[in-house]
Design brief:
The chain is mainly α. Helix content is 74%, strand content 0%.
Length: 256
């Protein structure tokens, strides 16, 4: 399972834009939230495309991934343009279906990226897709938590949904990374991490702390005071660090 910058950026952009659709379909958030995330993940998608095109001796998988990254950027740009054109009519005038093209394009790109990841294609694809949704959901949850400073009257349902999605995806993320050849081999010493097994324990800690932080965040969001949202956002800051550690530490250790 190769640790590759281009693949990571494509995962992050695709998962983040999938999470954006989950939120925009509610038509509750201010229109600026969509602008922020489409622009942010669009730029990350550009980085992924540039990185894929920069690979030496590009193979078929690289080309598919690069095309998928370009299509993701185009989809995010079209959704952003459509949102800007309908801004005077308010957020209810924006059709959420515009936010589906970009993550679908990202998924197609991941089909190509899995081909160059090494090992079993099916397992590599599962890890990339689940990882994309996992990283995207936790990132969007943190960004959405900040949006309550801009729109304090917003219901907590959109944020609670993203936190729940992160919690639901967590066991899938852990399982696909444990499937042989996976982190089980690192934990039992079959694969040398180069640090006397420390990285295996770091990975376990990241997994445990991630779900723990998600659980505490869900509890915090049940409190009726507005400060609970800010507390949840702070917890999500930490959850991002441990969630990214869960994915990236495993990929670094398992890299061929």
């Amino acid at each position: 399972m190769k640790l590759d910058l281009a693949t990571f950026l494509l995962q992050w952009a695709a998962g983040g834009l999938a999470g954006l659709w989950c939120t925009t379909r509610r038509r509750e958030l201010g229109i600026g939230y969509g602008w922020l995330l489409r622009a942010t993940y669009g730029l990350i998608g550009i980085g992924a495309a540039v990185a894929f095109f920069g690979h030496e001796g590009s193979l078929g998988g690289d080309r598919i991934a690069a095309i998928g990254a370009c299509a993701l950027v185009l989809g995010a740009s079209l959704a952003l343009a459509q949102s800007i054109m309908t801004r005077k009519a308010g957020v209810t005038a924006f059709a959420p279906i515009w936010d589906t093209a970009a993550p679908i394009a990202g998924l197609i790109g991941l089909l190509g990226a899995a081909d160059i990841s090494g090992g079993s294609y099916a397992l590599a694809l599962a890890r990339l897709v689940v990882g994309a949704l996992f990283l995207g959901a936790v990132s969007d949850a943190m960004l959405l938590g900040h949006w309550y400073l801009v729109q304090p009257g917003l219901r907590r349902d959109p944020l609670q949904e993203l936190v729940r999605i992160t919690g639901f995806i967590w066991p899938l993320e852990v399982v696909v990374l444990l499937i042989p050849t996976g982190m089980v081999s690192v934990i039992n010493g079959s694969i040398d991490d180069g640090y006397n097994g420390i990285l295996g324990w770091v990975w376990i800690a990241c997994c445990v702390f991630t779900i723990g932080l998600i659980w505490i965040t869900m509890i915090a969001l049940k409190e009726r005071y507005y400060s609970a949202v800010m507390s949840a956002t702070g917890l999500l800051y930490l959850a991002i660090l441990t969630a990214f550690g869960t994915d990236l530490v495993a990929r670094a250790v398992l890299a061929p």
